[in-house]
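Exercise (ungraded).
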Amino acid sequence: MVSERERIAHVLRRCSMGAEPDVAAGARSVDDALAHALDRSAPVSAPPVLAAPADEEAARDATRLRAQFAWWLERMVAGERPIEERLVWFWTDHFATGFQKVRSPDLMWRQHLTIRTHAAGSFADLLRAIAKDGAMLVYLDGVQNSAQQRNENFAREVMELHTLGRGNYAQDDVVAAARAFSGWVVHLPFRPRTRRPGTEPFASYFVPARHDDDTKTLLGRTGRFDLDGALDVLLEQEQTARFVAEKCYRAFVGLDPDARTLDRVAASFRRDWSIAALVEAIVSSSEFTSDDAVRAHVRSPLEKLVALAQAVGDGAIDPTAAGGVLRVLGYAPFAPPNPAGYPKGKALLGPHRLVHTFDLANAVGGAVDADARGTLARFGCFDVADGTVAAVASAPDARTRTLLALGSPEVALR
Amino acid sequence: MSGISRRRFLAGLGAGGALAASGLGVWAWRRDEEAPAPAAGSTPSSAEVALGIPGRTLVILELAGGNDALSMIVPHGDPRYRDLRPSLAVTDPIDLDGTFGLAPSLRTVAGEYAAGRVAVVHGVGLERPDLSHFESFHRWWTADADTDATGWLGRYLDATVGFDDPLAAISIGAGPSPALAGASSFATAIADARGLRPDVLDEDVQRALLAAWGKMVPDRPARGLLGDVQRAIGETLEARDRLTSMLAGGVRATRPRGGSRPVVLSMRDALTLAARLAAGDAAPRIVYVQAAGDFDTHQGQAARHDALMRQLDEGVAAFLATLDELGARDRAVLATVSEFGRRARENGTGTDHGTAAAHLVVGSQVTGGMYGEPPSLRALDDAGNLVPTTMLRDYYATLLAWLGVDAQPVVGGAPRPLPLF
């Protein structure tokens, strides 16, 4: 059913943020495509530095992130290290925080760089870094959490969304974890009370006087846990490895793992928390390239935008226009709708999201210079229904062909 | 829920032959098997919800930023009000009952109140108030439930129409309200009277584009997810046509402004559209309105809030006039929401974020009057805020009663609806 070329394209769609059309057309085999997608040796330009804000207004001005967002988009489109960008997005969604509440471009960008540092590294390191991350401390109220006044928000979400999953902890565990996490604050310039000697702007730091140092019992373990101690308890749980491995498996394969596969992958993940090894184990499984896995995911608006820019080739993305359309489509950069991340799956097939898919062309000029099949191939789609090809072919010009391909059922999936 | 009850629901909406024949409802066969299992604990989920009374629409108007309800439903009979608001007290309210009055600009609302068609619900708030816009909105959207991914109205959609009718809930604003986010349903968002149209391209190109797009929908859709997308495109074009006819003739279509800045309608235009939708055939059950108006009045509140009340009154007037014009006055109820009220004591020329607030419910089917206990202006909380007397869950349950829906699975807990309907 699925052609070899489509299977090659499938590997690239899953292991990058776009469609990598040049590689899809040229790869000799699925293994060839996989080797390309997993290669993290290509040089990448350094992330743009976010200059310190001049005043309080600038410290809250989201438009300061424009160049940063443009650079990030450019990494997705250029595809120097496809798997790295896929993983940066995966963790951005997994550890979702939003500007709506954080109100600090500097904290949002610091968090992005933290995720980027650990995206393919150790999950344990990533989790520890995120738990102390300024954006997360603000977004899930860690900065409000002290021995004197407990705030359970992060404690609950870290177990529900980031490590164990719902139903695998009790309210007592939430309280114990919140107590262990207490005492972390963020130095915000222009808020003198958040400052301590020796802390750099936007860095988080620990205030012993705000920490609840008493004994806690968390998930059956008792001790005077602090933040790292409590995270160690979460990382000891077999369920954490299963929860994260399963989510990762679904993200790459698009299907539910069978119990034996999940046991195997999770056990191996738990030994060293290597994200790169986990991904490699998942994508080298036969399920990953099975017919059922192909096009089992709905493409998000962001992935469509990247695919469009790659299809057009030299089409530069206007980051301001891109941000506007993505906002309409529920995919605003640095602003997921809630702590559970961006909408996924069939929710992306609602009428307004399908109609406004065409608006992505606001952010990317130009057109694919090819016939209908060639245009669809630039979006990484090779096995295409005749009706789709005929509809694209009926367009009067290259720009309309490109738009129709962008809106096609095949391009809506990945 | 069985497919039969869903079909009955659609039929009950007046969406008989035409919709059934046109293919709405094609999601049903996949929905049952893919609906997520109810979560553990007391969290509301997509449990069974009674389908409700057909032909009724609930219109929610979001007063974003935190409406100062003390300047809308003015406690002019309490001398403490002027102590707390020496410069900002509304001095010339339209008296309702000797104790409370309406902001002077709310003339239409006052007339409707006198006619017994407006309910004032006092002291609506969260069990554990939070003064952040984002956090409070999040709790209002989710009905303060222990869940992140679904909104209260989304859960209602999950449990009733699911993916079957993309126009069962329509959000007017820059994107769908998070209150409508469901696990196995979707709501349609429109920015303005143009309905479901791309924001790019001129009319001719757009028409040609959408015509060609429709050709991608085969007579026999493919199996699996690809078929779902093909059907979704077909339903989108159909929903677009239905919306276009419902919206026609009401409000001037806003001209696209070239870039991709979302259009934001005035309360008058947005509520006119909402009324047209509610008056249409197969009207949506929910219309969620996010209109222009910044209620976050930290500074310059006196003039700003008065202007906002004038816009609100124009919106209510346009809403009722449109319903009347279309012979649909008994079919819709309008209710306000806002993430919080404002601090009891004024601060400079404005007010800080607060907690409880009074809300308005308007419609010919409302039993007018005052509901709920007005929060005391003397027994404030430690931060100087009003203490909520009507829990959010009970307010929502009241509104769901208009739809004839069992509120418990939607808002959780043990909701106690107020007798407005």
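Further reading is listed at the end of the chapter. For now, observe: Residues 52 and 403 of chain B are 5 Å apart (CA to CA). Confidence is low (pLDDT under 50) at residues 1-47, 256-260 of chain B.
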